[in-house]
Amino acid sequence: MDSFLEEEDEEAPTVVVAGKRRRRRRSPAAQAALQPSLHLPFLPPQPVSSNEHKLNFKESKEACLSFIQDALLQKQWKRAAEFLTCYVESLEKDYSREHIGPSEMIWRVGTEILWHHSQSSMKEFNCFMEQMKTLGVKRYLKVCLEHVFHLLCDGQIDEAYQNLSLAESWRFGEQTAIQDKEMKLVQAYRGLLDYYNWSKQKNILLENGEDGFSDLAVEQEMHGYFRKAAVNLKEIIKIPGVWDIFVKCYVDLLEFYGDHNEARQVLNEYAYNSKFPANPNAHVYLYQFLKRQREPKKSLISALKILHDIVPSHELMIDFNTMLQKSKKRKKRRLGLEVIFAALDYAGWKENAKAWSCLARQVKRIVISEKHLDWIKQEWSSRKDWWPAFHFSRYLAKRNWQENKSLSYEKALVAGILLGKGCKYFKYVSRQGCKAQLKRFRMLKKFVNRHNPVYLRISGPPDCSVQP
């Protein structure tokens, strides 16, 4: 860590090079000016007894850790580096003669500082991580994995692959069995990089040759990467857990080679096996696969129904609502209304024009037919106290009109039906639309005025009977 502790604005008082401290020369005035800013908790210089020293050492170490934590929270990376160096030196100068091994804290904190320090380099980071791998066999694979993540973030794919290969060949007696899951994770990430190389070769083949497979050597190399990737990816997804990226890559491999049954089995297992944690993405991947395979809508609806139960605000709820509205079954159309109402309960959907269009279309259809008004009433009863301020304020009417007239039209239709022709949002938008001489807004105003009695039926007391 050549420049790990260098000052960012001025010369550093101390620089660590190859594990040794070298002091730079400074004028007495400069030293005096810098001295107060370094509140390093050094041990008292006067002779003390063994018990007193142990107490002082403990207090000094705890104080230093507190300073490190404070510096990290304030993102003062240079200051944190100084305190961490002091902490390490205090461990080395422990006069109690009790062995104090380097802790996981040094690895965690040192990694965080080096990754954010303005003067650190990837070379220094690699050097630090190699040192941390010698902290102890219990943490060896964890350090290797973190090193690989940082290499990947820096775009060093080959170096990351080499580190994974070295970690995979690591053996240390009983620790190998204890760290079996971590070893499988190492193998899985190596499989992920094999997939990356397979994908590159596949793209080369598809871009070149007429049939996509003109270069036999490249094709063979691609198949080699496929075999290595498939073996390691298949192993990791057998373990209950969240393995999204590994599942996606493995399914991509299987689909490319036409093994759709295996892909379906993998995705079903990932989505429905009770041993795996609840994971919305598992149902998203299954739905996307079924859609690619042109499966019946019944299967697609089944996959999205579970996703709706887990994450009612998921973006796929638009697709879900659309499929349900096209169904001939009344129960599914009723569910479609529930789905779109639930999605619009979330702030992220407030200005989603597609969602408001879905709701407006279904509400309009129900109002015209005068059937199933009870569906709207049931959904509205739990929302009428807070949706007006959340969605239909005059402020939002002005902003929506200025930014997206199509959105304001759909919302105004829904607001007019749910809150009547006196609704602030509806009045403002319809007035602006008529001033702009837009035909659709004139028709909107007429439609809401004509069906205003529906508002009274929807907003009536809970005990009012509404005929289907």
Task: Give an overview in words.
- This protein is an all-alpha fold and 468 residues long.
- The chain has 24 helices and two strands.
- The chain has helices spanning 28-34, 50-73, 77-92, 104-116, 122-132, 140-153, 157-168, 175-178, 180-207, 216-236, 244-256, 260-272, 280-292, 297-310, 317-325, 330-343, 353-369, 373-381, 387-391, 394-403, 405-419, 424-435, 439-450, 452-458, and strands at residues 14-17, 20-23.
- α14 (297-310) packs across α15 (317-325) and α15 (317-325) packs parallel to α17.
- The radius of gyration is 32 Å and the shape is extended.
- The relative contact order is 0.04.
- The model is unreliable at 1-53, 95-101 and 462-468 (pLDDT under 50).
First-to-last CA distance = 75 Å
Biggest sheet layout:
2 strands, antiparallel
Give me the side-by-side strand order of the main sheet.
Answer: 1-2
Backbone CA Rg: 32 Å
User: How many helix segments?
Assistant: 24
Residue fraction in strands: under 5%
> What spatial form do the alpha-carbon principal axes imply?
extended
Global structural class: mainly alpha
Order of helices and strands: EEHHHHHHHHHHHHHHHHHHHHHHHH
What level of helicity do the residues show? Answer: 55-70%
Q: Which consecutive residue ranges, at least 5 long each, have pLDDT under 50?
A: 1-53, 95-101, 462-468
Can you count the beta strands? 2
Average pLDDT metric:
81
Give the tags.
about 475 residues, disordered N terminus, 24 helices, mainly alpha, disordered C terminus
